[in-house]
User: Fold these one by one.
Assistant:
Number 1:
Amino acid sequence: REAAQANRYNQEFALLSVDLDNYQNSSERSLQKLASILRRSVRRGDLVALYEEAQFMLLLSQCRKEDAVRCAGRILQQNKKEAASLTVSIGVVHYHGKVCHPKKILVQAGLALHRAKKEGGNRYVIAA
């Protein structure tokens, strides 16, 4: 729905894929802590959802690329401050007016997330 609206009204949005690094060593409490950090790192009206086992998706409506990057940085900073023993990796996709199927946007977010993990984790990577 967000992609359709962005296409129709020439708007932009961002999708952030956030995953706990080394989830096997984490607990349910770790996921709850990350969820709390994520909810406080986005604007009211943005969507934070658990997507897979230890992966969250953040949908930032009407969000410029630089604001999406700032949000990813804020998440890393808050996580370091509040949950120093846990690290997260983030894949960032910015969408603006190029007609694209929503599944492709999810794939791009996943690839960026995978790259962040491959580069050592505890960072964000912007999808090309």
Number 2:
Amino acid sequence: MKLAFVGTGYVGLVSGVCMAELGHTVVCADIDADKIRKLKKGIMPIYELGLEELVAKNVEEKRISFTTDIGKAIRGAEVVFNAVGTPENPKTGQADLSYVFAVAETFGENLNGYKVLVNKSTVPVGTADKTRDIVLHASGEKGNFDIVSNPEFLREGAAIKDFLNPDRVVVGVSSDEARKLMEKIYRPVARNGRPVVFTDIRSAELIKYASNAFLATKISFINEIGNFCEKAGANVKEVAKGMGLDTRIGSRFLYAGIGYGGSCFPKDVQALRETGKEYGMEFTIIEAVDALNDRQKMRPVEFLAKHWKSHKGKKIAMWGLSFKPRTDDVREAPAQYIAAALLKAGAQIIAFDPVAMESFKRAFPDKRMRYAESALEATEGADALIVCTEWDEFRTIEATDLARTMKGRVIMDGRNIFDRKEMEEGGFVYFGIGL
């Protein structure tokens, strides 16, 4: 089929190239001329394992192309995927849908026969109805279209795998014609035995928010249990293991740490809470999840403040700047909040991340931040080490390595990657979450 993806950010680019890999002909369109120019040269705007190779392959096989002419891309497609961003409005906490609605208007203006506009972006319940009104108005009341909700469930760092071998594909439709087209698009996925779930549109819109809010709840829950383990003398790793073996609970996302970040959980939790208010609903659990996550990010700062009373003049090594490993995404990463608090208190920070340092510099342009070329270089002469992201390469570094480079003997392990006994035997004051 002929597909167009409007928006070449994380969702649009990954989804577009994966659709090409499934055999469809795909045009990825974006108003960012520099991004499109780089994509045509094979330069990726994001770091995602395997993405560059998959794009190159499908460009060579002429199944994917890139353009700034959004109208032309829409006119040449049977199905158009709206994959633009829905960032959080910093004043209201609501999802900013201005980009989504702008695409809907352009879609309506370029409607040249029956087409389907698919909301791939994460949008609140009821967005499809508003989108339909915009398209209808922009098209001159032609009405020869359908709106579909097809939320993405891609994990950064494993997005290609998640798209091609998903746990499920959720599609919200309101007509048989739209359903048939979406069935055709996802037929290769269904043939691999992956479930394609069709629902009404509003349920599809809510499934995405409910899923992310639930996963965020699991994270905040185990973090709170971890905080209690510290007081009660228990070990959160053992507690999580015992919980996770219960098939009703499962082990995934039961890892205590310094909170979640990224482009999805923080803004989706906020957006669901604000959407609830529009319907007269207060999400008490979600309120608590969000509040606990904000507090959890500050655990390293609080621990160090208790250990040495003042951060002023202390040299602190920081490992990991992305919100999770295998991505360069630093949006809402705990490292940003920790760095800001420590710098404000007069500490010196030297940071290392194997992928995300350039992204961090753009998002956090504080000239006081220093950066190292390796993890051990960051620890040279440091009074303390904070682990913010659980990159695999950090796990192989031993206490003897740190003892050789660090001046102080304090480790704040925000992701519980080290063995407490080994660190303490190496002469370190070790603090993990819930250990």
